[in-house]
Amino acid sequence: MNIENIKKQFPIFNNKVQNNDLVYLDSANSSQKPQVVVDRIYDFYTKEFSNVGRSVHYLAVAATNLYEETRSLVQKYINAKDPNEIVFTKGATEAINLVANTFGQKYLKEGDEIILTELEHHSNYVPWHYLRRSKGVQIKFAEINSEGEISLESIEKLITSKTKMIAITHLSNVTGAILPITEITQLAHSKNIPVLIDGCQGAPHLKLDMQEIGCDFYAISCHKMYGPTGLGILYAKKKWLEALPPYQGGGGMISEVKKDGITFGDLPNKYEAGTMATAQVIAFAESIKFLNQIGIKNIEKHESELTKYGEEVLRKNNSVKLVGSPKNKGSVLSFTLDGIHAHDIATILDEDGVAIRAGHHCCQILHDKLGLSATARASLGVYNTKDDIDKLNESINKCKKIFNK
Amino acid sequence: MDLKELYQEIILDHGKNPRNLRKTTNFNKDAKGHNPLCGDKVHVYLKLDEDKKVQDISFEGQGCAISMASASIMTDLVKGKEEHEVKEIVKDFLEMIKEKDQLNNKILEENEKTKLMCLSGVKKYPMRVKCATLSWHTLTSAIDNTQEEINSEKID
Fold this sequence. Notes:
The structure holds 2 protein chains of 2 kinds. By secondary structure, chain A is an alpha/beta fold. Chain A has 2 domains: about 5-30 and about 295-400, Aspartate Aminotransferase, domain 1; about 40-290, 3-Layer(aba) Sandwich (Aspartate Aminotransferase, domain 2). In chain A, about 40% of the residues lie in helices and about 15% in strands. Chain A has 14 helices and 15 strands. Chain A has helices spanning about 5-10, 35-50, 60-75, 90-105, 125-135, 150-155, 180-190, 210-215, 240-245, 280-295, 295-315, 340-350, 365-370, 385-400; strands spanning about 25, 85-90, 115, 140, 165-170, 195-200, 215-220, 230-235, 255-260, 260-265, 320, 330-335, 355, 355-360, 375-380. Chain A has a 7-stranded mixed beta sheet, sandwiched between helices. In chain A, strands 11-12-15-14 form a 4-stranded antiparallel beta sheet, covered by helices on one side. A two-stranded parallel sheet of chain A has the order 1-13. In chain A, helix 4 packs parallel to helix 5 (about 125-135), helix 11 runs parallel beside helix 14 (about 385-400) and helix 12 crosses helix 14. Chain B is of the alpha+beta class. The longest helix of chain B has 16 residues, at about 85-100. The two termini of chain B are about 25 Å apart.
């Protein structure tokens, strides 16, 4: 695969950012968008726009078909059994909130336990925290080891007869650890516990096979997958989507509405109340096609090589300390620099056009555990090259120079 | 060249060796500040004498070079000043960081103002202004005894 050709498909790299070539190392936050996705949004609004699922006119029918086409593409991409197992949401955050809310409402009571990990992004903790308040459920955190990984055992030892849900990340957005989600799911299922995977970082970088993983729920953030913002996906096994109550009420999700009662619509409409992010859904088909064209296995290989190169380069740089060294690592390089705060690093790197993230990356639990108030994070996407890593390293050296390190 | 303005020698010095980074014994006013976006935390301690003069001021906290330097310089400059003077200096500083070109207060000496103006480099970095102002807002909160933690996301 030719990265230069891939990079050319992303219009953002054609422009200078503050007079610099952009070295974009913030894809774990959000990825850049290929031209085909941008064009699709424009074309849909200019030539094909209509709301979906309501009217019978030509444009409405065509738009509905396009909308459902994305659902089928996603189903195939993640190898779900049924297209109705794909629910569009406004983001992965909403997908997790949907599960926490409806599952909590129907199945959880005081004293029940939910297992999370110390690696979780706030979006896979705060929704469960609400249940701690409203239902009195307990939240337990599986602990990381010294490499910043979560082992099967760390989860296993927390399981009790009261465990009602295991909700874990697929790939840590800080340490890069890839969790053994298939094994964890098998373990959980042997004890009749459902599993939710926060796939925000997993989906853009790893091959997904819902039937092989076997998880009950998998949350996806489309804007991290070279897709538009305002869109997420909840994969859920059909039995759950049928059993759980609706999340939001409104148009489109009902079957019959009377003064004295309402019946709800079938899947997938049951969970898609109101007008959805139609243009984004339709444009997301192009993101999936883009990923398919390159091939997720090729992306995995490219990013894995680049991550290894990044680890090598940064390890050689004396003052840099990498955060976490998991054996199975995704394309995230979090680091600290002796005596230089992450925000100072980010500002100085930015001056060279090197865009990274600094802070706690929405993982305060993890940063508290590591005893760090903030870290700097370079995260990779399909368009990154070794040259980007070298530029990162050069800018880090500039930080050291400014701070006389 | 903006980076050089931001990370001037004096900022780096105060950031590396912050003055008054400790806890005043027998403090009679204090307040906490927090920037939830970056995790910066500061706790300002004040000891005012019976004439409401700052006998001692100190701070504890962690943060970037800008926030540590700003707190350090602040504590240096307001020591020995009267409470109303401190408030005037804070107001003047916050106005300067936001919009004014210079400091207008008549309390600080010219060399002290020059020192404080070293922080004006953050004006070109809107995301970093809060790093520079957190300790100052927290000082105000300590003086006013609001007992509220300053949250940088809830102030201008």
